[in-house]
Each structure stands twice: as structure tokens, then as C-alpha cells.
């Protein structure tokens, strides 16, 4: 049979077939177009990535637009200026950079004299030059004048030493700030929370830190009694300097030097006053749980933050603007704080580069800041006492580390309470 091209289709739905074929052709065209677009996108991504990888191998150098050291200016406050000088002495590159990159000597008043500053031949003699370095020196309270005249002296003769106190390395060294007349406080501590020996399988050693009484302060001569006490107990460190509130910082740095020489193996150190109660057992339990960085960098207490100098002359902690300006770093205040032996050695080293400040707790905070350490607040340090209704409760002291203040009689009583094996809280 011969087919004719012009022969009509016999399918009853011929029109639908034609439409279906046309739609199929359109789908194939769209699919092809999408495949081509995807291929182009792939090529573009690969080219961009290859370009980026090649560019990443190129070392780019970014040059600073400003000087690293900002324009140097001497502080008008005496202590700040002293510290600026110490910073220069221990890092002369700082001021060298400041004076060569940002300013000339003529642009900074008295900078040339300051850079060439040399301390007195004997820093332990009264520095009369202080009267010229502090503009309102003559109007300062006498305690400030006394402190400033000798603030550069750190070398004092020892009247009593205890070199054998750490013949066996202590786990916990209790370093207690005391004064010559406080015989009863020291004895109460020896009989209670500060008893030297083995406690809960840990070696605890107690030493007392004293200065000397001065006739100008109208103290009776107690030197013979203190000498006898030192010989009897072997736990007295006494230096021949005037024992005053502002010299507590001196007591701090002298102890750190002694510790570094005679007791550097102490694992932990509690530094506190002689009018506090310390729960030594609770401290030992706390320390036994520490390890690693927490143990190495330990420094805890009742930490004070966002504080600054008091400007009211009537206050005990008054600091004039001519002596110090600026905020205080975080510091542990009150009756005591606890830190590791490792931190103690670091404090000893950095304290040599920090000018003495008349408030010892703040000074320690300054040293910690220089070390890049932040003291940690611990709720177990109650430096402002506890609620009166709990003061006669033995159980109130079980979970605390320190309570301030407490009398010698209270120390002994509280220690007996918490040492009772039958105590059930």
C-alpha cells in the first residue's frame, strides 16, 4: 500500500496530539537552558574560588596609621609620678619611645629632669625633698608626712626571725599581722585556729609579723617581752621600723621577701589580722579540692571593686589628690585573704616594681593587677561580721573561712565549738 503525504489523519483527537508535542518541545528547550545556566554558574564559582586561593597566598602588610605610644604626660599626683618613674626604670623602652616618637623633651615640662632622676644615696634616711615634690605637703596629716619621708626604704634590720619555721614545707602558712602589745591575741591564735602542727593530715605553720614600737607613739618598752616570746615560740618575725597603719604595706613586702627566702615551698598562704577568727579546717577542705590553674592562681577573699580613694580628711583611709589619682583595682579588703604559694612568689617579684602605697590591701590589688590576676570574691570571708543572732551559734561558723572581728576569748570559744566531734549541724 502506498502512503500519501497529504493523506489526512484518522485519529479523532489529532489536535490534542499536536499541542502535546509542542509542549514537550518547550520543556526540552527550558531544561537545556537551565543546564547551560547551571554550567555557567559552576564555571564562575570555580574561577572565583581559584582566584581567592591564589590571593590568600599573598602576604599583606598593614602599616599602622598612628603611633603605638600615646603622648606622654607626667602625673601631677606624687604616687602616680613615682610609679611612672619605676615603670621607666624597669622598661626604659617605654619612655624612650614616648620621647622620640610623640614629643620632644621641651614639649613635656620637667621630663628631662624626671628621666635623669636618681634616688637618694640612702633611701632609708628621711627624704626632705618630699616637701618640694608634693605641693600641699605642709598641710597633710602627720601620718602622711611620716609615710612619705621614708616610703622608698625597704631594708630594715630584723629584731626577731624564725628561719626554722618552714624547715618542713607547710601545706598552709598562716602569716598574721600583729603589733608588739598584742600578746593576748597571739596566744589565743596559738591555742585555737593558728596552732602549728598537723591538722587533718596537713602541715600548718603560723608566724606573726611585727614592726617596732616607737617612743614618739608613747608605747611602753616591750622589747624584752617580745624577745622572750620569740625565743619561746619561734614564730615571731619582727623588723625595726615604726609599726603604724600606713606601714602595713611595708610589713607586707618585708614578709613577701622573707617568704621567698625562707618559706618558698609553702603551698598556700593565708595573710590576715590578729583580731579575726579563721576556720582553718574549712580552709584545708577547700584547698584539698583545688587543682591545676585554680590552685596555681588562687587568690580569694572579700573582694572590693569599683572603689577609689577617700577625700575626706576625717576618714581613716583618706588619700589626698596630691598623692594619688585614679580608681583602685579590685582588691581583697578586711581581715585576711588566701592565696597560693605560687602567687606569693609572683607578688614578691612584682612588688619590687610597685611604689609603696599607704593602704596595704589596695597595694596588694595593685600588684595583682600588674600580674594580670583578678582576686576572686568568696562568700566565706565575712570581714564585716555576721548577723548578731548567729554569733553564738557553733553551726554558723562551720561553713565560713573568716569572721572579723573576734576577741581572743571568742577565738578560743568558737574553735572549741567547731572542733567538737559531736557537733551536728
From TrEMBL:
Main location: Golgi
Transmembrane segments: 30-51
EC identifiers of the protein: 2.4.1.-
Name of the featured protein: Hexosyltransferase
GO molecular function terms attached to this record: N-acetyllactosaminide beta-1,3-N-acetylglucosaminyltransferase activity
Keyword Transferase: yes
Entry-linked Pfam families: Galactosyl_T
A GO CC term assigned to this protein in UniProt: Golgi membrane
Keywords from the named record: Glycoprotein, Glycosyltransferase, Golgi apparatus, Manganese, Membrane, Signal-anchor, Transferase, Transmembrane, Transmembrane helix
Family: Belongs to the glycosyltransferase 31 family.
Record-level GO BP terms: poly-N-acetyllactosamine biosynthetic process; protein O-linked glycosylation
Species whose genome carries this gene: Astyanax mexicanus
Protein localization: Golgi apparatus membrane
EC class of the enzyme, as a word: transferase
Domain of life: Eukaryota
SUBUNIT field: Interacts with B3GNT8; this interaction greatly increases B3GNT2 catalytic activity, independently of B3GNT8 enzymatic activity.
Membrane topology value: Single-pass type II membrane protein
Amino acid at each position: 500500500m502506498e502512503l500519501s503525504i497529504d493523506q489526512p489523519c484518522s485519529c479523532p483527537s489529532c489536535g490534542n496530539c499536536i499541542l502535546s508535542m509542542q509542549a514537550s518541545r518547550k520543556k526540552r528547550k527550558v531544561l537545556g537552558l537551565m543546564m547551560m545556566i547551571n554550567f555557567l554558574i559552576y564555571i564562575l564559582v570555580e574561577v572565583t574560588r581559584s582566584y581567592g586561593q591564589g590571593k590568600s597566598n599573598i602576604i599583606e602588610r598593614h602599616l599602622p596609621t598612628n603611633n603605638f605610644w600615646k603622648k606622654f604626660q607626667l602625673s601631677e599626683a606624687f604616687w602616680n609620678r613615682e610609679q611612672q618613674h619605676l615603670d621607666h626604670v624597669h622598661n626604659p623602652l617605654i619612655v624612650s619611645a614616648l620621647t622620640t616618637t610623640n614629643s620632644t623633651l621641651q614639649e613635656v615640662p620637667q621630663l628631662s629632669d624626671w628621666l635623669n632622676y636618681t634616688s637618694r644615696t640612702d633611701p632609708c634616711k628621711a627624704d626632705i625633698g618630699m616637701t618640694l615634690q608634693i605641693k600641699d605637703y605642709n598641710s597633710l596629716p602627720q601620718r602622711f608626712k611620716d609615710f612619705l619621708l621614708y616610703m622608698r626604704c625597704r631594708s630594715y634590720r630584723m629584731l626577731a626571725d624564725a628561719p626554722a619555721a618552714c624547715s618542713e614545707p607547710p601545706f598552709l602558712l598562716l602569716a598574721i599581722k600583729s603589733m608588739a602589745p598584742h600578746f593576748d591575741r597571739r596566744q589565743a591564735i596559738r591555742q585555737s585556729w593558728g596552732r602549728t602542727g598537723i591538722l587533718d593530715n596537713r602541715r600548718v605553720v603560723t608566724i606573726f609579723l611585727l614592726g617596732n614600737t616607737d617612743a614618739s607613739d608613747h608605747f611602753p618598752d616591750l622589747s624584752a617581752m617580745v624577745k622572750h616570746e620569740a625565743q619561746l615560740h619561734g614564730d615571731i618575725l619582727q623588723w625595726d621600723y615604726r609599726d603604724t597603719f600606713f606601714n602595713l604595706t611595708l610589713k607586707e613586702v618585708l614578709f613577701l621577701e622573707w617568704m621567698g627566702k625562707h618559706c618558698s615551698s609553702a603551698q598556700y598562704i593565708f595573710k590576715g589580722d590578729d583580731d579575726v577568727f579563721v576556720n582553718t579546717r574549712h580552709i584545708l577542705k577547700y584547698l584539698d579540692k583545688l587543682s591545676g590553674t585554680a590552685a596555681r592562681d588562687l587568690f580569694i577573699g572579700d573582694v572590693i571593686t569599683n572603689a577609689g580613694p577617700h577625700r575626706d580628711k576625717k576618714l581613716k583611709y583618706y588619700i589626698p589628690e596630691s598623692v594619688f589619682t585614679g580608681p583602685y583595682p579590685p582588691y581583697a579588703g578586711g581581715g585576711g585573704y588566701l592565696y597560693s604559694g605560687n602567687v606569693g612568689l609572683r607578688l614578691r617579684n612584682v612588688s619590687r616594681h610597685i611604689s609603696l602605697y599607704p593602704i596595704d590591701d589596695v597595694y596588694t590589688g595593685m600588684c595583682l593587677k600588674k600580674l594580670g590576676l583578678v582576686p576572686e570574691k568568696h562568700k566565706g570571708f565575712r570581714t564585716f561580721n555576721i548577723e548578731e543572732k548567729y554569733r553564738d551559734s557553733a553551726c554558723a561558723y562551720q561553713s565560713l573561712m573568716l569572721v572579723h572581728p573576734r576577741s581572743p576569748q571568742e577565738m578560743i570559744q568558737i574553735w572549741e565549738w567547731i572542733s567538737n566531734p559531736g557537733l551536728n549541724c
